[in-house]
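note to self: dont lose this again. the chain is below, predicted strucutre after it. 225 aa total, dont forget to put it in the shared folder this time
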Amino acid sequence: MATAAQRPISHNQIGQKLGRKGQETRERIISAMLHLLADPDGPPVTVSGVAKEAQVRPPNVYLYFPDMAELLLAALARVMDTAEEAYLARLRQRWPDAELHASCLTFLRAHYAFWQKHARLLHMRNAMADDGDLRVLRYRNDVTKPLIDLLATQFCSGGELAETNVACVLLTGLERMATVVTNPQFRIITGGAAEADQRAYVRGLVEAEAEVLAAVIASRRAAAR
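---
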């Protein structure tokens, strides 16, 4: 089921039906938002900055998006459409017991690569959700639930509350680590390590996560037999 941010938009904020030009302008604004967020060292993203990048006047942004949260949700919907191919598909087939660690590592590397590519957008999502914006919080929950459910099916048949709870705890840890290592201040967090050393450190963390995830899945499968 599509979230509110993924449903087709037919009218602007003052009730006018969107024609081809209006749809193109709206898409250009979303693309401008994503372009600005793709720069890890860029300045804070603002409505005026998005308007300048999209080559529209700031009031025109508000014609399509009432506030930054709605613009963020539109950008998130665009990015999350790529999550299936990026990492979710790796969870849709049961990982063989004999290849459990390798399967976990492949999935976690893909999940981290997605976070690294879209770090500023995902950090902005989390900041707005943690600040209490219910729209962004609901969206984050909506897009996280399929991942939790798919992870739970790796334990056994999935659907059981206990398995879902374990998957939720594991995913929280994965997301927290991704949040930390994609933080722009990560070099400071690691004591000013060189870039190559930072990459090696992240690889070690992902490999450690794979060990933990594989151990939990093996344990849950054994308990279910």
